[in-house]
Write a structure and sequence with these properties.
By secondary structure, the protein is α+β, with helices and mostly antiparallel strands. It has helices at about 35-50, 85-100; strands spanning about 5, 15-25, 55-65, 75-85, 105-110, 120-125, 130-135, 140. Strands 1-8-7-6-3-4-2-5 form an 8-stranded antiparallel β-sheet.
Length: about 140
């Protein structure tokens, strides 16, 4: 089964979470429009390496940012928060993206998760698989992680 409907995403309203910021305006050309790909690749490897069998969801929200990222000007950023994974996952993802994106990613702040703020789920882990959203409540995986 490579596609399925998922309604039960990991989320805890009002919980403060570290946010991984990606300065979209300044990504290397090869990642313009495809910045999710290294997130999915890292996540799939992490799930396999850790034999992670729990349910987790990554959420994103975009906005203008003036947070200090070395060598970056203020600009558009996407922020990632994660529910259901240990904090070591987000720190590992941050290290991975710093290398991929030439330093234009880092954990810059903590945010309070509020559904009214417009957070959107884009990556879900369930049954040892990493799922990518392809439409409202519709998810696809490339197979077993």
């Amino acid at each position: 089964m490579n596609e399925r409907t998922i309604y039960d995403l990991a989320w805890r309203e009002g919980q403060a979470k570290p946010a991984l910021e990606i300065r979209i305006d300044e990504l290397p050309d090869e990642y313009q429009g495809t910045w999710h790909d290294p997130v999915f690749a890292f996540t799939k490897d992490w799930v396999t390496e850790k034999a992670f069998g729990k349910t987790a969801t990554l959420w994103q929200w975009g906005g203008m940012s003036v947070n200090p990222i070395p060598g970056a000007e203020p600009g558009w950023s996407e922020f990632i928060i994660a529910f259901g994974v240990p904090q070591t996952y987000l720190h590992g993802l941050a290290r991975h993206l710093v290398k991929k994106f030439g330093g234009k990613a880092r954990i810059t702040e903590h945010v309070t998760a509020q559904t009214n703020d417009g957070w959107a789920a884009f990556c879900h882990i369930e049954e040892g698989r990493v799922w990518r959203e392809i439409g409202p409540h519709e998810w696809k995986t490339e197979g077993r992680s």
